[in-house]
Amino acid sequence: MNTEQNLLSVETLKKYFELKSGFGSPKKFLKAVDGVSFDVNGNSVFAIVGESGCGKTTIARLLMKLLDPTDGRIIFKGQDVSALRGEALMGFRRSVQIVFQDPFASLNPRMRIVDALSEPFKIHKLAPKHEIKDRVTELLMKVGITDEALYRYPHEFSGGQRQRICIARALTVSPSLIVADEPLSALDVSIQAQILNLLQDIKKETGIALILISHDLRVVHYLSDEVAVMYLGRIVERAKTEDIFKEPLHPYTHLLLASAPEIRHAKSANRIRPAEQGDVPSPVDLPQGCSFHPRCSKKLAICDKIEPVLKEKNGRHIACHLYNSE
Ligand code: SF4
User: Fold this and answer.
1) How many CA atoms lie within 13 A of 266 on its CB side?
2) Domain for residue 270, yes or no?
3) Residue 293 CA, closest ligand 1 atom number
4) Which domain does 209 fall in, by range?
5) Is residue 119 one of the residues assigned to a domain?
């Protein structure tokens, strides 16, 4: 079991997308991720939550090296991933796997399951040819799929079964970290609990660390050890999961919890006022100061002038003038 501390460090990571602008107009950027930092330890689940468009999925793509950052660093097992080449880069690609939201789009419709799952074994030379089928069967069994699936195609399976197959494929290379980007949101509610339990079992049995990207707070509450709350490209609060759900501090975290009735905490429900239900500002034209101030019923005079920075207090990190000025 992998119990490495500090498996991954993300340091002031930024990703800006340049937008098309008219001839002679000033350049405009969408700041999808704007100075995000966090650490993930081995054998832990780190959740990133926030409304759609807050930058969660861009972080997943940066972590997978599917996008290059505008600035900042990603350190994996002590190495800056931007400097990895050749064998070291192959090793990184093996160690960090992703499970996407849509299990159908993630599987090649023309490939039988046995071929899709054999591929990583062949690419990374992980097993002798004659052993690969047994290894694939073993992995499918681990995720609750029988060997009858081997010679079938993705369209022959339900959404939940396809997601199990995608998880099995991620496990083929014995990764240290799986990035799960909204792994349940394309599935029926009745199936979600099964996949959630599967992810929980994998965490317990293998010690693989998980970065769980989700807008679903029930999932985050159930599975994660630590939570980062993102708003418009920045982390506004980061803390242990139990602390976030027991005593949210940032007004935006209150809003998120208040909009999840099934886990709503009394402290959040009572403290949310109508102003906080307003529209999210454009990520291209962020308001000055705290980006949450147009929606915040607790804003102070300083809030539309100076941007709060993420500061540590009693083991929790928060970017809000209500706490930073104390
Ligand atoms: Fe509200 Fe001000 Fe805190 Fe932003 S910094 S969340 S506007 S109190």
Assistant:
1) 0
2) yes
3) 7
4) 6-20+29-324
5) yes
